[in-house]
Structure formats: C-alpha cells, structure tokens
Amino acid sequence: MSTNLDDYRHQCSDIIVDHERGEIICKSTGEVIGSLLDSGPEWREFLDGEGKARSRVGSPLTKSMHDYGISTTISERDIRRLKYSQRMKMYNLRRRMASTRMRKSKRMIDALTILRQEVSRLQLPQLVLENAALLIRKVVENGLGRGEKIKSYIAAAIYISCRLSKIPKSFASIISALEVDEESARYAYRKLVELSGGKINARVYKPIEYVPTFVKKLNLGPGSEKLMYRLSKAVEKSPMLQGKSPIAVAAAIAYVSSAIMGEKRNQRDIASAFGTFTDVAVRNRYRDIVDNLYIEVML
Questions:
Q1: pLDDT for 208-223, tens place per residue?
Q2: Side-chain half-sphere of 77: how many Cα atoms within 13 Å?
C-alpha cells in the first residue's frame, strides 16, 4: 500500500499518523484510511541496549581502518558450534584470510593502528581521527613515511586535522607527545600539503573562534561567555595578536572574563584544561589585554 501522505490527504484533509501502530487515521471520522510500512526491526526490545545487540548491521564505515571496517571475520563462537573436523577447517580458513589481508595492506594497517593509538592517547575526538586517517592513507598510497618516518607524518596529520576541526592543539605539543623530531615533522607537514594539492585550509583561527570551547571546558556562565565575545572583538582590532598564539590569547580572555563576572578560574587550571600552553603564557597575554584595553580587574 502507498505510504505517500499526500495521497491520503485527498481522501481526508485532516489526518493523524500513528507511527507506533503504523496507521493513517482520518481525524474527522476516526476511520483508518491507510497504513505505513514498518521500517523498524522485527523484534521488540525489553532491555536497555538489546536493540543494538540484535542489530543486523555492522559498525559505520571509518577511514581509520585499512578496509574501512567492512571486512568480515569468522567468530570463535560460531566455530565452536561445529564438529571437530569442520572446526579445524574453519580455523585454517580464518588464518588464511588474516594472512592474505596482512600481506596486501600491512603498511596501511600498521600506519592506521599507530594513528588510532596516538589519537586515543591525546584524547582527541573521532572527527580528528577520520580527517587524519584520510591524510595518512595518501601518505602510504604514495610510498612515503616508511619505517620510523611514519610517526612524523602522523604527527603532522593530527596537527592539520586539529586545525581543521578547531581543536586547540599546538604543533609543539603534538610532536612532543609523539616524540618525533620537529624538523622531520615540519617536512612531513609540507609533503601532506603537497599531496592534498595545496588545498588544506589549516588557517590560524582567531581567539573568538575558541570561545565556545573555553566556555564548555571551564563551565562558564552566559555572562562570562558574552564578555569573552566582546573582549575577543576588541583584541582583534588591536595589534596584540601579532606574533601571539590565538589559543593563549583566548585563554587569557577567559581568565579576565571569569574574574570580572565572579566566576574566576585559576590560570594554571585554564592552561592544564588544554595542555597546549603554560600558565605563564596565560599570565603574559592577560597583562597585554588589561594594559592595552585599560581593564581593571580585582583579583
């Protein structure tokens, strides 16, 4: 039966759609004039999470897996249900499948495995992982990043992905966390830009673009948030940003705003919330702001 609601509105101008029962009802007469096709599962859920456990679809596609997460494996539980002779055959088949997969894409598997580990260790979101994985795929496909050099490319890919996602992570903090040489990481960064045709828009963001992140991380109220936006606009009109880290400037703005609005956050706490700069950087940018904008803060 047709599920186009416009067809039923010709029969009744005022209809009600009961999605739970799958019925289309005329509000005037109470008559069931049609039905909807049920696109949901054919089972009922009685426990929390039961629907997800019984789902017939797999995980979503992801660039961070060498096969995009679409390969299949023979589960141990299914093998154990078989007779002994059949079990041995299935174990051998599973080993051959794994061996074939490793031979064909060993470098890709190794590179993406390291990438996932480092992104997880840095506690970065899935969006950063997906964007970085796309860059690392290009590196492996072009025969670059062999041996230990792959970590330099991974550091550069994570940095670019953070910039694209507006995640406040400095280049220095990433290469320090991954323990790679700065010169080789910068070379890898330039190669990644070349591989992308120079189209990576990893621009330096303004302090105002970090305001939502700081408000959420520091749990600040709407008053502090509004003042942060006002101070950010004022800072952009001054020469204070020249040669300064926009993240550190945004942190100082958060410190000033929280103090003025009675929600003062410690400079060290603000710096440690991101781990990309020190409380000394916050203090220096704070002095620039109060001196140039003539702000008096009672600390």
A1: 888 888 888 889 999 9
A2: 0
Segment 68-109, tens digit of pLDDT:
555 666 677 777 788 877 888 887 877 776 666 555 577 888
Tokens for 122? 């840095």
| Range of lowest pLDDT (31-35, 121-125, 152-156, 190-194) | 31-35
Report whether 154 contacts 111 (CB < 8 A): yes
What domains lie within the chain, and their CATH numbers? Answer: 1-45 (2.20.25), 106-195 (1.10.472.10), 207-292 (1.10.472.10)
Kindly report whether the global pTM for this prediction surpasses the value 0.70: no
149-192 pLDDT per residue, tens: 899 999 999 998 888 877 767 788 888 889 999 899 999 998 99
Q: Secondary structure of the chain in the HEC alphabet?
A: CCCCHHHHHCCCCCEEEECCCCEEEECCCCCEEEECCCCCCCCCCCCCCHHHHCCCCCCCCCCCCCCCCCCCCCCHHHHHCCCHHHHHHHHHHHHHHHHHHHHHHHHHHHHHHHHHHHHHHCCCCHHHHHHHHHHHHHHHHCCCCCHHHHHHHHHHHHHHHHHHCCCCCCHHHHHHHHCCCHHHHHHHHHHHHHHCCCCCCCCCCCHHHHHHHHHHHHCCCHHHHHHHHHHHHHHHCCHHHCCCCHHHHHHHHHHHHHHHCCCCCCHHHHHHCCCCCCHHHHHHHHHHHHHHCCCCCCC
